[in-house]
Design brief:
- The chain is α+β, with helices and mostly antiparallel strands.
- The protein has helices at residues 10-33, 44-64, 75-89, 92-109, 115-132, 141-152, 159-180, 182-187, 192-209, 256-259, 275-288, 310-320, 331-334, 357-365, 381-391, 406-418, 431-439, 447-459, 500-512, 529-542; strands spanning 226-228, 232-234, 265-272, 289-297, 300-307, 322-330, 346-354, 369-372, 393-399, 422-425, 462-468, 473-475, 478-480, 485-489, 492-497, 518-524, 547-554, 560-564.
- It has a six-stranded mixed sheet, sandwiched between helices.
- Strand 14 and strand 15 form a beta hairpin.
- Helix 1 packs antiparallel against helix 2 (44-64) and helix 15 crosses helix 16.
- The longest helix has 24 residues, at 10-33.
- The protein is globular, with a radius of gyration of 25 Å.
- 52% of the residues are buried.
């Protein structure tokens, strides 16, 4: 049995994220089924799962960067990665609030993981979450978070006592939520977001103590659950939530008096903006709709709001800064209330991950459904599953365009298959391979034949990218200094140069030495067109039979992507 931590170190944070993801995976269907507030759209458990999945992936990336070292990452690196991952991957009202809770905790735990820091972290987290919500409501996850923080304050001893007290305080508060929020009392359920938070805190208890907390009746309560509606009971996690008159699994529950008259759309986006701009954004969005939650800081924010005018909500973000990863959900369609007949699914579609908005436009014009992978923000499997659903086809070809996404894409493909979609994963390792595969896609031919042709086109495309070295380090091409331009061919550093044009020419020479018929250049947003013109001329002068195509990639990590077919 592994040694249990005396405080919350990086390994404990990693374990916590993993256990929380497992717990929400087990419980998300039941949490979805009791989701009646603020909208009875039955997705709270799923949104919390996807948020924690993103947090866990970010922590795993920190540990992966330390694989060659002898020590684990610093606690500060792990908790900050957890908070950042949750922020960029937050989904829905509940996921956005959870992201702020984790961010509030990370701000304190980065300085220490002992009992005193953990008590303060829980308090800061609860306060930060309340501040992020435009109009806090009692009987929600905010109430549960506050109760957890207050219960932890009575523990002066060790970390395990603090987390256990917080968990018990959260469970007790969860049982009382139907008494505080009328819509919960009428439906005979506890708050779905609060139940998800209890699951996350239960995972923290297990990470610290090595034992899963008892999830039966609350210790010392003397009763199985809180009575609701004259004798029906509201169960606590895990193992089913008895609901007055409704078995678990028949949700989402609906409250007719609350379902009508609310905003039509949920709008979510990440936003790069200054603090003062965000203050004005809050005021404007608050006037447009409700369920407003804005979380984040240090120039990066996650915005969530329910509105009737989705365009106005996005425009407000444009005025405040640079919104991206924009997601607009029509509640009627998502919650099953839309009586319109859905369109017949297409026979085949392509879902492609792209590194910038420029290629997203290109691939969309070619008929593909796109997922943008922002620098340092790889998509989670849930985003890929959503894209497969949006494609609305019986057959889907998935192009991940990144070797690091192979497991994520495989998980998404497997999930989609359970939903009846035939999915083929073409293991593209770079965007230029995805472009080559998409160019030969023919939806009218047989599925297997199409997949084989796309796979062959991707495999016949060598790929390279230019990157800026962040620090001095050893590479396969020698020692590089911070600021050097690195030319990576098929994933390995092959060239070290002083500037983009010269390095690109050397990379092209090496790639074309083995032959080729077509060069693809994808320029980052800061690379001038003159560079592409010069490189196109360079290829033409040295290789008369080789054609060159140039695309604008937009905001992408690499200043230049190169493909040779």
């Amino acid at each position: 049995m592994p040694q249990l931590p005396d405080d919350l170190d990086a390994v404990a944070v990693r374990t916590w994220c993993s256990l929380a993801l497992e717990a929400l995976g087990r419980e998300r269907a039941e949490i979805d089924a009791i989701n009646v507030y603020p909208i009875a759209d039955g997705d709270t458990g799923t949104n919390l799962y996807l948020t924690v999945e993103s947090a866990a992936a970010a922590v795993e990336a920190v540990f992966a960067a330390h694989e060659t070292g002898t020590t684990a990452p610093a606690t500060a690196d792990a908790v900050r990665a957890m908070a950042h991952g949750a922020l960029i991957g937050a989904r829905g009202n509940s996921g956005t609030i959870l992201a702020q809770l984790l961010r509030g905790m990370a701000g304190v735990l980065a300085d220490g993981g002992d009992a005193a820091h953990l008590r303060l972290a829980l308090t800061r987290a609860a306060a930060a979450a309340r501040q992020a919500v435009a109009h806090p409501v009692e009987g929600t996850v905010l109430t549960v978070a506050t109760a957890a923080a207050e219960a932890a304050q009575g523990e002066e001893r060790e970390v395990r006592a603090v987390v256990s007290a917080a968990y018990e305080g959260a469970r007790a508060a969860l049982a009382r939520t139907p008494e505080q929020l009328a819509v919960l009392g009428r439906a005979g359920v506890v708050d779905a977001g609060g139940r998800g938070l209890v699951a996350v805190l239960g995972a923290l208890v297990e990470a610290v103590t090595g034992q899963a907390p008892v999830r039966g009746p609350r210790a010392g309560s003397g009763k199985a659950a809180a009575p609701v509606d004259g004798g029906s009971v509201v169960g606590l996690p895990v193992g089913g939530v008895p609901v007055a008159g409704l078995p678990v699994g028949e949700g989402p529950l609906d409250c007719p008096e609350d379902a009508d008259g609310g905003p039509a759309f949920e709008v979510i986006y990440l936003l790069e903006a200054r603090d003062e701009q965000v203050d004005r954004l809050r005021t404007r969005l608050d006037a447009l709709g409700d369920s407003l939650v804005v979380v984040g800081g240090d120039g990066l924010w996650h915005v969530h709001v329910h509105v009737d005018d989705a365009g106005a909500a996005v425009e407000a973000g444009v005025e405040a800064g640079r919104p991206y990863r924009i997601r607009i959900t029509h509640f009627a369609t998502e919650s099953g209330h839309d009586v319109r007949v859905q369109a017949e699914p297409a026979q085949r579609a392509v879902v492609v991950v792209v590194p910038g908005d420029g290629l997203a436009g290109l691939c969309t014009e070619a008929g593909a459904t796109t997922v943008i992978a922002r620098p340092g923000e790889p998509p989670a499997s849930g985003e890929l599953v959503d894209a497969i659903r949006r494609a609305h086809a019986r057959e889907v070809v998935l192009l991940p365009n990144d070797a690091a996404l192979r497991h994520t894409a495989a998980a998404a493909a497997e999930q989609a298959r359970t939903e009846g979609v035939r999915v083929a994963l073409v293991p593209t390792r770079a965007a230029v391979q995805g472009i080559a595969a998409l160019a030969v896609h023919e939806p009218d031919r047989g599925f297997d034949e199409d997949v084989v042709a796309m796979t062959a086109a991707a495999g016949a495309t060598r790929y390279a990218e230019l990157a800026v070295a962040e620090h001095r380090s050893w590479t396969m091409a020698g020692i590089c200094q911070a600021g050097d331009i690195l030319g990576l061919i098929d994933g390995d550093v092959a060239v070290i140069g002083a500037d983009v044009p010269a390095t690109a020419r050397t990379v092209l020479d090496r790639m074309l030495a083995a032959g080729g018929e077509l060069v693809t250049l994808v320029l980052g947003e800061d690379v001038p067109d003159a560079v592409a013109d010069a490189l196109e001329e360079y290829v033409r002068e040295g290789h008369l039979a080789v054609d060159t195509v140039v695309y604008r990639g937009g905001h992408q990590r690499a200043p230049l992507l190169i493909g040779v077919e």
